[in-house]
Amino acid sequence: xxxTPDAPDAPPALRAEGVSKTIxxxxxxxxxxxxxxxxxxLVLRGPNGAGKTTLLKILAGTxxxxxGEATIDGRKADERxxxxxxxxxxxxxxxxxxxxxxxxxxxxxxxxTWGRDPDTCDERVTAGLAALEIxxxxxxxxxxxxxxxxxxxxxxLTLFRPATVLILxxxxxxxxxxxxxxxxxxxxxxxxxxxxxxxxxxxxxxTKTIADAVLDVGxxxxx
Length: 223
Prior knowledge:
Shape: globular
Order of helices and strands: EEEHEEHEHHHEHEHEE
Strand content: 15-25%
Radius of gyration: 17 Å
Number of helices: 7
Structural class: alpha/beta
Distance between the termini: 8 Å
Number of strands: 10
């Protein structure tokens, strides 16, 4: 399936050609193909166990497919490739968090890792937390957060990366309706800025807000 590009001849930002994943006799992901155009959002749907997370990991380059190949801007999706790491920000499970670093410290570390101007770091960190409405928690440690706050912190870590591709596994989980709407609006804004997004999502309202196309994993596409 293919999302709709802004220009008819725009090459896909993400492509999967016949990717699948099996472990012994168990099929984690049936053979799947997709193209996602730059600046568009594809939402993956399906019941638990359908293979959504497996597909996201293959697209992010953190899992090798049994068959087929996934590419990002024509380059093999492989997290060991520095170019791919600089292109992709992925939320696939809980990211690494350090018990003795505050929320602001974590974003500062990301800022420094990607070589941003240290003189304006504090402004970016504040804005990154404020975007998820958790700036008032800047001096908290990760283990001091509630379940919903932890999810917002994980999203802040992911969205703070200077990436042009976002790959998110159920970003709406543990969030109330208002916070889900907030996250959906942030993703739409990122999409409008040119970011390409693939999201596994169970929330119909969020799907309606962000999706240019929907893929039922293991089933037919619904564009």
